[in-house]
Task: inverse folding
């Protein structure tokens, strides 16, 4: 669909904080976190030792938002026509990994945690094994629910 | 608190897709989206014309997740002791803008939209005027609610 001529990305550089360890590759990766969950495959966030201290205070059972960098997705697609949608739609109106900044995010639950080694197990994740991780945030109803909806 | 010696950020470079237009500066910026909402000040997402086509398909009333780059926050703080929290806590256990990648996000509601000019008005935003925007995503209960909670 419509690809923009956007030039090189010239904004701030990210730090990769670790890698996702999942069962998935290009041939079998679930299309979204719901499908990943249905397939019952937990995933591990392998946080680089340099960043492991930043995990302090997280706990098992807690819902967190994981941000990951979809490094094989396209950054120049502004309008797309995915099969499940009726007609073309802008990338900011879709959760497609193809977008100007190929950040995907899911809200998942921590099932095990070792802050010394930097290993965080979560109930599911919908990305390829080895996908770069860029952030973990506690999910908070006051910030993450739409205004007017209560948690 | 504990600042890490993390070296330069050497991951993928972001594209800045636009700027937040808010009433806030360093002296009066609300600490979080709840406070921003209480103060009743809508905000505008000024999307760069090059990226405006990616807004197609969004609609007034829709909840969206806005990702913004907190360009004055610290990237080397791994453990912090904010006043509202009991003792030091890792940056991944907090919503502080100080984190390895200074991405903040809030779920807000679109109150007006012009996809031609790239102006998206939202009910509130808790960042300084001029803050770089990096993504807009439709909020979807199947991805953004914790597992086991229904929308």
Result:
């Amino acid at each position: 669909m419509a690809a923009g001529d956007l030039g090189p990305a010239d904004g701030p550089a990210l730090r990769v904080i670790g890698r996702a360890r999942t069962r998935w590759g290009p041939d079998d990766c679930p299309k979204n976190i719901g499908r990943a969950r249905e397939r019952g495959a937990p995933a591990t966030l392998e946080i680089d030792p340099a960043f492991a201290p930043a995990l302090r205070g997280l706990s098992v059972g807690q819902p967190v938002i994981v941000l990951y960098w979809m490094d094989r997705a396209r950054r120049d697609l502004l309008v797309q026509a995915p099969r499940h949608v009726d007609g073309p739609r802008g990338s900011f109106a879709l959760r497609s990994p193809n977008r100007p900044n190929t950040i995907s995010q899911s809200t998942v639950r921590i099932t095990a945690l070792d802050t010394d080694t930097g290993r965080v197990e979560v109930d599911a994740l919908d990305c390829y094994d080895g996908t770069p991780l860029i952030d973990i945030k506690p999910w908070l109803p006051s910030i993450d629910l739409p205004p007017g909806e209560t948690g």
Observations:
- The helical segments of chain B are 33-38, 141-144.
